[in-house]
Amino acid sequence: MLEQQAMKTDEKDTKENKYIVFRLLDEEYGVEVNQVRSIERMQRITRVPRTPRFVKGVINLRGVVTPVIDLKTRFGLGTEQYTDNTRIIIVAVDDMEVGLIVDAANDVIDIARDRVEAPPEVVGGIKANYLEGIAKLADRLLILLNLEKVLNAEELMQSNEMEN
Amino acid sequence: MDINQYMDMFIEESKEHLQAINENLLALEQSPTDLEIVNVVFRSAHTLKGMAATMGFEKMAHLTHEMENGLDLMRNDKLPVTPNVMDVLFTCVDILEGQLTAIIDTGSDAEIPIDEALQALTNVISGKPAAVETMVAGDENRPVSVSFDQYEQAIIRQSIASGKSVFTVKIKLDSNIVLRAARAYMVFNTYENLGEIIKSEPSVQDIEDEKFDLEFQLVLVTDEDGQTVQQSGLNVSEVVSVDVEEIQIAHLEMQKSKLEVAAATIAEPPHVTQGGTVPAANEQQSGDVNNGKNTKPAAESKKLGAGKSVRVDIERLDILMNLFSELVIDKTRLEQIAREVNNSELVETVEHMSRVSTDLQNIVMKIRMVPVETVFNRFPRMIRDLAKDLNKKIDFEIRGAETELDRTVIDEIGDPLVHMLRNALDHGLETPEERIKAGKNETGKLELIAYHSGNHVFIEISEDGRGIDREKISRKAVENGLVDPGRTEGLTNEQVFDFMFRSGFSTAEKVSDVSGRGVGLDVVKNKIETLGGRVIVNSVLGQGTKFIIQLPLTLSIIQAMLVQISDEKYAIPLTSIIETANLKSSDIKSVHGQMVMDFRGRVVPLVDLEEVFSIPRPQANDSDEENVVIVRKGDKLAALVVDSFIGQQEVVLKSLGKYLSIGIFGISGSTILGDGQVALILDVNALIP
Question: What does the CA dihedral B233, B235, B238, B239 come to, rounded to 10 degrees?
Fold first, then answer.
């Protein structure tokens, strides 16, 4: 009985989640794979006026008009410079679909839950409340994003007010 | 069997039956002697009871059962239709609606108390005249064991007078029978060939549902004699016995005289229509209230409509519409490609395809159209209750309930209409005393009219109440700082009434005949404007007020003009555009720092979209000409400055996505162009200063 329980907890701890790994500047980030709908190449974006600077505009994603934000601008990590590696990661949070522009996206990895640590105050210039945690892997460090916070509409509104 | 799969159907149909009961009770209140209406209500209540019991909603079934008892007495003329009875019935319907809502929300009707209503029903029923008791006793002595209401009696009398015979036929089926309903159906079929079945006990509905044991009775009007009638019945297999009894006028007289004692309050002759078809009589009656649309009892309409219509989940229609929108986008793209390639066969094919697509669009649109009745039909009841609360006498009329609107609009229009109707009743119409003092009929008139005109549907709410006092509104507008004191004289009525739609207007102070009018009117206006419509007010002091709501037929596909500014393309809804113009720099003047142009003698402000939307421009525009699109919002005009006009085109409205749903100034949505690019659609209402 006890053994069984012990095994269960053991299982839980080592349970692995899949993450999509992407790059902003030199740091690596991760978002849970079940929040990701697709990864798109850079395409023409229709600018939407009177929105915060990080809102790049909207794209036609197979018939659905989808807003796109520039993650680097969102986190104040500098201005966009799009290359051949630039990707738009389409994520879905609370049936809200948004595209995130990142410098590169090329990996899917499994991370065990016990590998994830609570985030420090500020990581690479990003406030802790945007972060889910930090995953320490053998040879790399992965910053896991809390998309609910990153895509918070209230904040969009606030920054909208600032803009105007 | 999982009962849940029937839940949706149960909810839908219960709603329909409750609506039907509500409507018919209102009609009955208008013509209390028309027992056919009671019959219709009875049938709805009965069906409701059956459905509720099947689904296991005991309380609902119980309450409808008790209602049915009361209604049964009413339709057999044993319980007079009094205001008291009506109120109890209305209360029951309210509780049933509450139960249904509870079922939708929680899956159970257990929480809604019904005891009070049951008690009230019992009181009303037991309050029936004592004469009825004796009549029940007398029933046994009579040769006729089926009792008839006035309507049925009239048919019987008419038939006998025209030389036909009327028989009650009692059919008994074999006790080993398997398909009772099917056998009963065969019996009915047999007799329908002989003559007309005017009544059956239990009801046809119950027999169809196998809600009978082995016996049932029917009343047959026929040219044949009793012998033939009996033999025809026995010819159907598994029928054990057929008892035939002829009805004489004398029997009816006996029944009738007793009934007259029982219901002394009702002295009107029976309501008879030539040919005596039940639904027709009913429709005519309730027509006063509902414009005669769709008021047939559900059981009847189901029979008539079978095979002609299909119930489709509204979600599927939405999917169909979305898929079709995709097609429209591809069609636009194909048209563009065909022009570029310039292959005559391709062009021809694409042209044909666009014609088909236009037809297809019309049909898809039509399928999505719903009569405004679905919104309007709850109003008579609301007005009745509100008028009672306010002690006002109101003659409420609905016209054009069959006018159709896109489902999306229908879903949104209900609340604003409720608001405006309440306003009209509460603030527009006077009390009977005030009306008499003003020399008007003490009963106020409230009309709700819907009609179609061009690409729009109009809904008018008009009353002959006290009207809006322009002076009071102007004063209030000055107080609220909306307008300079000296300028109110020069404003048109429309401009003055428009102040009522400003947020917070007239809530600050209670001015008797204006107060409340402003409360929420701004919300109403916003809602209607987000639907692409507008509100106009006409009012004559002392004579009444009319609110006119203009709505677009559909929200999904619109005609728009595409314009270009620098590298960006925008779509302007064609409905807002008056015309386009090409201006020389010298045509543009500056008044108080605002750029204006002269448009047929009117000074029209210029709106520079490049500036409003901070549109980046790599190369300075050094042309000394400006292209403008003159747009309007009500009476106001503005000229939107653009670089060039691309052309007119059908565009499919798309939202900007949930993330940007907070609303962006000057943008109402987006669309996908032929080349796959997204273009934004301008919100002209916001752009006009």
Answer: 20
